[in-house]
Amino acid sequence: MHELSVAQALVEQVRNLADENGATAVAGIRLRIGPLSGVVPELLETAFPLAAAGTVAASAQLHITPAALRVRCETCGAESEATPNRLLCAACGDWHTRVVCGDELLLERVELDIPEPPNPRTPEPPTPDPRPPTPDP
Ligand SMILES: [Zn+2]
Q1: Using an 8 Å Cβ cutoff, are 94 and 73 in contact?
Q2: Rounded to whole angstroms, how far apart are CA atoms 30 and 35?
Q3: Over the Cα atoms of the chain, what is R_g?
Q4: How far is the centre of ligand 1, averaged over its atoms, from the C-alpha of 84 (Å)?
Q5: Measured in angstroms, how far is the CA atom of residue 33 from the centroid of ligand 1?
Q6: Taking the complete model, does pTM exceed 0.85, yes or no?
Q7: pLDDT tens, 79-123?
Q8: How far is residue 119's CA from residue 85's CA, in Å, rounded to a whole number?
Q9: Which one of 24, 74, 84, 111 is most buried, by most CB atoms within 10 A?
Q10: DSSP 9
């Protein structure tokens, strides 16, 4: 299952982010997936909990935004929306088009649970001196 390795790579990326930010958990993950990315959003949603199990991302909510597929025509230069099986220019109908966007798999946003830093105004409790008193010479 291709989506499982995608999910594992995603979890890895999110874990690094959580580590860097001192997060204790990941609340949500927002992804943008284009129709030409080769990733089926439904399968990724199924694979994600398997990849995230036992990690900081285990309880994260996965939100997937489907990205639009756009092509630029190499004949007339117009940019238009297209469908994966019909990459035609909407302006002139030419098939000499280049995909502008629609093949992306983007990690748009990660919501992290970061514990509150300790209040700096709270004085530290006095630490008892662990050393035994030095005897007088
Ligand atoms: Zn065109």
Answers
A1: yes
A2: 16
A3: 25
A4: 17
A5: 25
A6: no
A7: 999 998 999 999 999 999 999 999 999 999 999 999 987 777 766
A8: 57
A9: 111
A10: H
Q: What angle do CA 11, 115, 56 make, to 5 degrees?
A: 20
From the CA of 97, how far away is ligand 1's center (Å)? 8
Length of the chain: 137
Nearest to 17 by CA among 63, 25, 106: 25
The answer for residues whose C-beta is within 8 angstroms of residue 27's C-beta and 6 or more apart is 59, 60, 61, 111, 112, 113
Residue 41 makes CB contacts below 8 A (sequence gap 6+) with 33, 64, 66
Distance, CA of 28 to CA of 60 (rounded, Å): 5
Cα 130–chain centre separation: 47
